[in-house]
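Continuing the series of single-chain predictions for the mutant panel. This is the parent chain; the variants come on the following pages.
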Amino acid sequence: APRTQEDYRAYCGKLKYAFGHMAPDEVETTDLYAYHERRGAPVRANREITVLGVIYRYAIRWAAATRNPVGGFLYEPETPRTREVKRAERVQFARSYCPRWLRAFIMLKYITGRRQAELLRLGLYSIRDEGLAVPIAKKRRQRTLILTWTPSLRRIVALAYSPKSGN
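Parent structure:
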């Protein structure tokens, strides 16, 4: 995805700044721990070091390195997010900061639980008699999921495609 590519480029910039002066086989696992400590953002450092591991796999494949120092690296434990956004917070945000079409998008995302990329592919062609047709492209297999109509889904789709929403 474009956002992932942008993040990876940023990670590579940080890694180049930290390790760019070293030859690939000069980087030791202890250097990675030192980088992780200096970084100050443990979760972001985990991601960056993961990318470095992928880079090393290619470097070994291309004979630019003989070993991968990330192989034995112990990542900082991460705690998953446990707090859910409360309904009142979601409503307050939508009413205070969002145009009508974005409020509809937030509600649609909330009631369907579908991925952002799937919902962004919706159009007028997605509205069918039997329900809302959501194009799914996961694992390179194109298919369509039909979300059957409920009163809430009808209301949200009507809000999203109403003339006042700017669509």
